[in-house]
Amino acid sequence: MTTTKGLEGVVATQSSISSIINDQLTYVGYKIDDLAENSSFEEVVYLLWNQKLPNKSELDAFTAELATNMELPEPIIDHLRSYDLSSVHPMAALRTAISLLGLHDSEADVMEEKVNKQKAIRIQAQTSTIVAAFGRIRQGKDPIKPKKDYGYAKNFLYMLNGEDPKDIEIEAINKALVLHADHELNASTFTARVCVATLSDIYSGVTAAVGALKGPLHGGANEGVMKMLTEIGEEENAIPYIDEKFKNKEKVMGMGHRVYENGDPRAKHLRRMSKELTKITGEDKWYNMSLKIEEYIKEQKGLPANVDFYSASVYHSLGIDHDLFTPLFSVSRMSGWLAHILEQYDNNRLIRPRAEYVGPESPEYVSIEKR
Ligand SMILES: CC(=O)SCCNC(=O)CCNC(=O)[C@H](O)C(C)(C)COP(=O)(O)OP(=O)(O)OC[C@H]1O[C@@H](n2cnc3c(N)ncnc32)[C@H](O)[C@@H]1OP(=O)(O)O
Ligand SMILES: O=C([O-])CC(=O)C(=O)O
User: Fold this and answer.
1) ipTM surpassing 0.90, yes or no?
2) How far does residue 65's CA lie from ligand 1's centre (Å)?
3) CATH value at residue 234
4) What is the largest CA-CA distance in the chain?
5) C-alpha of residue 346 to centroid of ligand 1, in Å
6) Same structural domain for residues 116 and 157?
7) Which of 59, 94, 138, 311 could form a disulfide with 54 if both were Cys (CB 3.0 to 4.6 A apart)?
8) Number of folded domains that form the chain
9) Of all atoms in ligand 2, which is nearest to the CA of residue 182?
10) 331: domain CATH number?
11) Which domain holds residue 242?
């Protein structure tokens, strides 16, 4: 038996949802650059779930369907009010709330395709409401109900802040949602597929995926980037800070990628947005610092920035709490997880690799009294 640590380079499934070839990312064959520049998040979700771009009436109907399903069942709100949110990471709260949604869905264990698609709509719609409600309740504020005539990105910001967002803010969130929606067989998506390949239910699949995204080597890196930038404080401290990380053999969050060699094609969109937004907020030091770190690490280690690197200063500029960055990533990636779960159900086989045993060989069994 030979093992490949971390399954690097192992092709574990076929999928027609997204692909990464020669550092190019596509969703159902469409280039990420075109989608990021032109599409609404709803359009991308429709694409991932239906394998085709919607026409105008299909998109209008799908957008409305998501908006009308955004309201949370009352017990989810009661649950979020029932414990001390100030001592809980929002990703842990999201993981539990998503799981709880399943308890309030009488169709949670119905496995018919049509029913699973309806559940996917409800889960996608309600995930943003959970994150926004968490953000408000922990500040002692009441959650805000979604508006049925708002698009997904606008509704998220409206529910979080309680006021209508500016166009540039909607545009930034929409673009971030599009860029984070899917990414081939990343760790959380693989987790979701492994889970549902046992023919477990859709809620179990997405709950497991939220748990996997939480880690700092995956989605949790965006919060880690902002923590680092805050610790650095000023541009002139950036290089000595990074040198210290190198000296201590610590990883720099937001840098490096398992699949991309020359750069993550999503990063340039977020870099541009970071430049624009930090100029508006008068805090371009976050952008300048990020750029300096990116260039230095590229030069020193040949490592490119990944999607998490510039999303940090983008979300910070939009006034989003730093520990809500990864939940916001989940709001978007939920669409990819759901697409992969539906695809897995559609052509399922249990996912069960092998492990190469490297433990002790044939130790003599000694009875408990003699050990
Ligand atoms: C949405 C996403 O999930 S994107 C990824 C988000 N995660 C991060 O940003 C966390 C920081 N980055 C990393 O930890 C890694 O680059 C990963 C996990 C993304 C990919 O890692 P892998 O392909 O497993 O590479 P691995 O961790 O084995 O690193 C290979 C080498 O590059 C170094 N390296 C990789 N990333 C970094 C980094 N961010 N900072 C410093 N060194 C790094 C490692 O220390 C290692 O060096 P060595 O061979 O001298 O020991
Ligand atoms: O693909 C990966 O390994 C991580 C990543 O960039 C993502 O999930 O967006």
Assistant:
1) yes
2) 40
3) 1.10.230.10
4) 76
5) 34
6) yes
7) 59
8) 2
9) 9
10) 1.10.580.10
11) 221-317
Name the active-site residue from 105, 201, 284, 308. 308
Residue 318, amino acid = L
Single out the residue of 240, 239, 227 nearest to residue 296, CA to CA. 239
In a domain, 110, yes or no: yes
- Whether 225 is in the pocket of ligand 1, judged by its Cβ within 6 Å, is no
**194 and 277 fall within a common domain:** no
**For residues 16 and 28, is the Cβ–Cβ distance under 8 A?**
yes
Residue 340 Cβ inside 6 Å of ligand 2? The answer reads: no
Residue bearing the CA closest to ligand 2, atom 8: 186
257 is catalytic: yes
DSSP assignment of 46-94 equals HHHHHSS---HHHHHHHHHHHHHT-SPPHHHHHHHTSS-GGGS-HHHHH
Check whether residue 32 and residue 144 sit in a common domain: yes
If asked whether residues 166 and 268 sit together in one domain, one would say no
Q: Is residue 122 part of a domain?
A: yes
Q: What is the pLDDT along the chain (371 residues), one digit of tens a residue?
A: 789 999 999 999 999 999 999 999 999 999 999 999 999 999 999 999 999 999 999 999 999 999 999 999 999 999 999 999 999 999 999 999 999 999 999 999 999 999 999 999 999 999 999 999 999 999 999 999 999 999 999 999 999 999 999 999 999 999 999 999 999 999 999 999 999 999 999 999 999 999 999 999 999 999 999 999 999 999 999 999 999 999 999 999 999 999 998 999 999 999 999 999 999 999 999 999 999 999 999 999 999 999 999 999 999 999 999 999 999 999 999 999 999 999 999 999 999 999 999 999 999 999 999 99
Contact assessment for residue 6 and residue 345, using Cβ atoms and an 8 Å cutoff? no
Check pocket membership of 258 for ligand 2, CB cut-off 6 A. Answer: yes
User: Do 137 and 279 fall within a single domain?
Assistant: no
